[in-house]
Design goal:
- With about 375 residues, the chain is mostly helical.
- The protein is about 75% helix and about 0% strand.
- The protein is built from 14 helices and no strands.
- Helix 3 packs antiparallel against helix 10, helix 6 packs antiparallel against helix 8 and helix 10 crosses helix 13.
- The longest helix is centred in the C-terminal third of the chain and has 44 residues.
């Protein structure tokens, strides 16, 4: 055998395929971690923090009468209807039914998917487009409704602080100083947020600072990407300002009624489970709960809100079993119930859209082909 026959044959370089680089499933990994953390907090931290076993919590929940539970569901539904006042004000021409569909489907998607907030906004955008709204109208709607929601959550501690000063038990008196400082900071943040969307000068300053900070972060990460936050901020401010100046009363009325029904719902849940809390303590706990829903560390704040709210109410003198059961019942209504109801709303929208557009396509005489995922 000659030496030449021992030389391996190498395929031309053009035929060699480089291995495909797969993008790591970072959003799903974060989602799994967040869900695991929420589950751990609920299953392990709540009994450890309250000193109440799950058997006792379950027995307390099982003792809630069906009539009382029906009333709570009714209050929950009234709150959602009240919220449509704000939504219809932020998107002129939107019907109450469609506003309710946007609210429930967006919440359902946000509560179950990784990066659920962005997914919920994307779904609502697609719905709004099918109803004839353009990108600018939906952008103003999204910003204004979220800003009003944030303002409501930031305003609650300001209202709750005097109640804490007057009624707080000795166990929380030492916390009033930090709470007062936090309340002042929240008031400043709320004023800044509102000024940004009412004043072109404030939007110019905030947009400039945000663009410089974002550019510095990108350069520090080795990226040369250009950002134009200043222009986006000023354009958005112009559209939002017109909307706010025209509809601020309706926006505020809807948000106030919605927030009030949520407070009533929490009080009702705690009453039915025998938490033994005064109305002022419930108001203080509710203010904390609203703040805990803002960071979005887990889907819908699951785990974080239950543990944080239970801890606050126990510190305010609530009975452990009643407090934990009441908090879980409240979250089952405001977080859990929105998922199946919102899912049904999404299914109804999809079915209606499909059956309304099919005849229109058939009338054109065009052959239809599968469009694939949108």
């Amino acid at each position: 055998m000659s030496a030449s026959t021992l030389v391996p044959v190498v395929a031309p370089a053009s035929n060699v395929r480089a291995p495909r680089r797969r993008t790591p499933p970072t959003p799903w990994l974060r989602y799994v971690v967040a869900v695991a953390a929420a589950t751990t907090l609920i299953l392990l931290a709540i009994p450890a923090m309250s000193g109440v076993p799950w058997t006792t919590i379950g027995a307390t929940l099982g003792a809630v009468p069906a009539t009382g539970l029906s009333v709570l569901v009714l209050v929950w539904a009234v709150g959602l209807l009240a919220h449509t006042i704000t939504l219809t004000a932020a998107l002129p021409g939107l019907s109450r039914r469609r506003a309710l569909t946007l609210s429930l489907t967006g919440s359902a998607v946000s509560n179950v998917l990784p990066l659920g907030g962005a997914a919920g906004v994307a779904l609502n955008y697609r719905m709004a487009r099918t109803w004839g709204y353009d990108r600018n109208q939906f952008a103003a709607y999204t910003v204004v409704t979220n800003v009003w929601d944030i303002l409501a959550k930031l305003a609650l501690p300001i209202l709750a602080l005097p109640l804490l000063v007057l009624t707080a038990p000795a166990a929380v008196t030492q916390l009033l100083g930090p709470v007062a400082v936090a309340t002042v900071l929240l008031a400043l943040v709320a004023a800044l947020v509102l000024a940004t969307f009412l004043s072109p000068k404030a939007a110019h300053v905030v947009g400039t600072v945000a663009e410089r900070l974002a550019t510095a972060v990108l350069r520090g990460c080795g990226s040369q990407r250009q950002v134009h936050l200043h222009q986006h901020m000023t354009d958005l401010q112009s559209g939002c300002s017109r909307l706010v100046r025209k509809s601020w009363r309706q926006l505020s009325l809807g948000m106030a009624l919605y927030t009030g029904t949520l407070l009533l719902l929490l009080w009702g849940c705690l009453q039915l489970t025998g938490a033994g809390l005064s109305p002022t303590a419930v108001v203080a706990g509710f203010a904390i709960e609203r703040l805990l829903t803002m960071p979005g560390l887990t889907p819908g704040g699951a785990g974080v809100v239950e543990v944080g709210l239970s801890s606050a109410l126990l510190l305010l003198g609530g009975l452990p079993a009643g407090v934990v059961a009441g908090v879980l019942l409240y979250r089952a209504l405001t977080f859990g119930l929105e998922i199946p109801v919102g899912g049904l709303g999404l299914l109804a929208w999809w079915w209606t859209r499909r059956h309304l557009t099919a005849p229109a396509v058939a009338e054109t005489g065009l052959a239809t082909t599968p469009a694939g995922p949108a």
